[in-house]
Amino acid sequence: MPEPSQSEQKKCFVIAPIGDKDSPTRKRSDAVLEHVFKKALSPEYCVKRADEISEPGMITSQILQAIQDYDLVLADLTEHNPNVFYELAVRHAIDKPIIHVIDTHFGIPFDVAGFRTIKFDFTDLNSVAEAIKQIGDQASEVSKGNWGGTPIKIANLMRRTQGESQQTLLLQETLQSIAATRQDLEGWMAYLAEKIEKLESGTRDPYLFGTVPLSSLSGVPGIPSGIPVRNRNALAGLYPPVMPVSSPQSIPSEADAPKSVADETGKDDHLPVRERKMREAGGRGRK
To answer: What is the C-alpha to C-alpha distance for residues 106 and 178, in angstroms, rounded to an integer?
Structure first.
């Protein structure tokens, strides 16, 4: 299989303790980079450490840019270097693929202890071979889109889940409130339907609304069909008191209406109080 060209290669940035030139930290870091990391990821990835960036510019800005832009980051947590953990946090924050490794002589800090970390002893060839295999396997999974995530990603998922649960509870409460309101409305509708049925059946107070069914009032002079008699006093001068009837034929006509009390006695007792007073006042004025 032909090796990918430099333009086709993916990029892997190595976060690791570097140390001063010729220091034990530097010697170990150089050896691990060359014989473990590059061997595990080549030729698919172009593997670089911060001191191998050749472009001019601020080294800190270049490191942060590479951490954000590279396809993969490989973080060596050996020696618990503060710069390594700072750069590790940046990569975690942007939620992009990363592989953790550490020397077996060092413990894994609590905050990243739950993240799968490849342990190896650089002085043990079998351990080194196993580490190379594991790094290659994890890189292959990353290429397939299977890399799990970071602690920050998990924390964000938990926060969103909690937020969604609260929204779900609020939605449930709203639906329950709507259901209760619907029951109240149905109760009111039933109550109003009952009242309307009673009104239309003629079971009303004879002194307030009259007891004649609406259908029985058709044909009565001066009363449009379907309009209930709502003021008995206003019609007292035209019609006699209306009692409950079973059919329109039983409604008395104007010819059958008795003469008013005023015709016989002159006192207009059948009129409302207001009209009687007006007539009395008019009579006094004429005298």
So the answer is: 60
Q: Do 58 and 108 contact (CB within 8 A), yes or no?
A: no
Coil, helix or strand at residue 74? strand
Q: CA Rg, the chain, in Å?
A: 49
Enumerate residues 6+ apart whose C-beta is below 8 A from 278: none
> What is the rounded CA–CA span in Å between residue 140 and residue 160?
30
Q: Cβ neighbours of residue 90 under 8 Å, at least 6 residues apart?
A: 64, 67, 68
Q: Which residue in the block uniquely carries the two structure tokens 């009687």?
A: 276
Strand order in the sheet with 98-103: 45-49, 10-15, 72-76, 98-103, 117-120
Give me the CATH topology for the region 10-149. Rossmann fold (3.40.50)
Spell out the domain ranges in the chain. Answer: 10-149, 257-287
Cα 5 to the chain's mean position, in Å? 49
Each residue's pLDDT tens digit, 209-254:
444 454 444 444 444 444 444 444 444 444 444 444 444 444 455 4
Calculate helix-pair angle for 82-94, 59-69, nearest 10 degrees.
Answer: 40
